[in-house]
Amino acid sequence: MKLNNQTFDPVQALVAAQKAAQAGAKVLEQYFGRLKQVSEKHLAGLVSEADLASEDAIKGELQSLYPAQFLGEESSHGTVEVWPSEGNWWIVDPLDGTTNYIHRFPIYCISIGLMWQGELALGLVHVPALHTTYHATKGGGAYRNGEKISVSERSSIRDSLLATGFFRDQPEALKEQIEIFSKLVFEARGIRRAGAAAYDLCLVAEGVFDAFWEKNLKPWDTAAGTVLVREAGGVVKDYSGADYNITAPCILASNQNIYSTIYRSISDCRTC
């Protein structure tokens, strides 16, 4: 499917993403605390009827308001077998933090990214329980509820608050992650595990977290957050030190000052 517009329109695309996120949030609020169907996807975590209904609502709005090809976590069944190198794609996680949501821990979000002709052009993350929306467009800066944000300026790891995530269903990756955690927890001021990677990236973008790292995320987990961190003045790389591509198996996002220190700690333990 081709976009009707030949050139990217950040205003129209952002309006579409905002309306889509609100439609998804309405669904999530209706299901919160009232779930009846929860199942487990192979190597992809939990899924509920809320995830599915939220994705349907988001997709409907996006395809109506700013049509592009669509990659959603639920409709793709949690896997990306073929990833296009060009074209226009909405990349959506309709409920990032499903485990939190199922257990009524109110840190969960909707993540909507737009890839335009092979480059990330827009990211929007909506956190319903906190009434907070983050958005960024390429070259346009990053914002939280309409106020411009930027990454932190901390340069000492001793003064830094870091974030990460764990996934128990892949034992080897979990062992590596624990090794990195065990190293950094003695060096940093603290490490947090909120349970929603898209939200973690938002907190890097607004300078709450100084760095975030994780392994085995998917494009819908990181597309929107990557735009936000970069537009907020941060660095987003993979564990090899290359610029992060949303198909990469590992991500490290941080401010400019702390990046080299965190990278060295991770590179001592990494396997990807």
Order of helices and strands: HEEHEEHEEEEEEHEHEHEEH
Identify the CATH homologous superfamily of the largest domain: Fructose-1,6-Bisphosphatase, subunit A, domain 1
Determine the structural class based on helices, strands and strand pairing. Answer: alpha+beta
Q: Provide the number of structural domains.
A: 2
The CATH architecture of the largest domain comes to 2-Layer Sandwich
Number of strands: 14
Per DSSP, the total helix count is 7
Mean pLDDT: 89
Level of helix content?
Answer: 25-40%
User: Which strand order does the major sheet show?
Assistant: 3-4-5-6-7-8-9
What's the CATH class of the largest domain, please?
Alpha Beta
CATH fold-level label of the largest domain: Fructose-1,6-Bisphosphatase, Chain A, domain 1
| CA-CA gap between termini | 34 Å
Q: Supply Rg.
A: 17 Å
Low-pLDDT residue spans: 1-5
The percentage of residues in β strands lies in 25-35%
Question: Which overall shape is indicated by the principal axes computed on the Cα atoms?
Answer: globular
**Major pleated sheet:** 7 strands, mixed
